[in-house]
From TrEMBL:
Transmembrane segments: 37-62
Gene: pspC
Signal peptide (from-to): none
Organism for this UniProt entry: Sphingomonas paeninsulae
Pfam families: PspC (PF04024)
Domain Phage shock protein PspC N-terminal as annotated: residue spans: 8-62
Name listed for the protein in its UniProt record: Envelope stress response membrane protein PspC
Isomerase keyword on record: no
Alphabetic keyword roster: Membrane, Transmembrane, Transmembrane helix
Amino acid sequence: MTARRTSFYLDKQNAKWLGVCSGIADYTGLERTWVRVGAVLLTIMGGFPWTLIAYLVTAWVANPKPFGLYESAEDAKFWQGVRQSPTRSTRDVRAKFRDIDRRLADVETHYTSRNSSLANEIDNLR
């Protein structure tokens, strides 16, 4: 069974405590440190005990991040973009395929069309 790359996972490999903040950072693409600072500030500024309860419930409910979920840092960045804006990601992928299709059509046209300048040069050499 393959892991879903659009799901939230606890990031135990980069965890300080249970991996919730690093999981949020991995899911959203934000810096881990800023997520941790935000969680601490939210707790200090009146979120206690609800932030701690939410943290513990999330740590209890969420699955740990599978090892080797992303093949590279570029792959991780791509999937973070998909989670942030699936519509934009779909539009970008369609635009890339459209561009590749257009370039292939140009290559095919160039390859199958008659190259008159080259033919004229060959005729002049005869």
